[in-house]
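Below is the record:
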Amino acid sequence: PALFKKELLQDNSHVPQTSGVLPTIERMLSQQKWLCGDVPTVADLSLYCEIGQCLDKFLGLFSAAKIDINSYPKIKAWCEECEKLPGFESSHKALADVCPTVKSKVDEFKIESKL
């Protein structure tokens, strides 16, 4: 699959865009617990799908792109809250199942390219 092509992993053109989005999300979460207020909405579920898969516990893409999620404490806390929502485990089982294979490819590339 295209995901395993090294040239795609070498393309870091997305990193500045990602780095610009995270501070915006951090600011939003500094004003409220969830993206749209005091309760989780489909916006939180949807965004977690994008951010959560990048965490080290899943694919490790933040680390591969040298983005330190610890620099965004509100996002980190928000992720932890999302993971407590009912149905989280069952809805992320498929991702958790494929992560070791995909993450090994990301890790292999990091070692080879010394990212």
About this structure: The two ends are 22 Å apart (CA to CA).
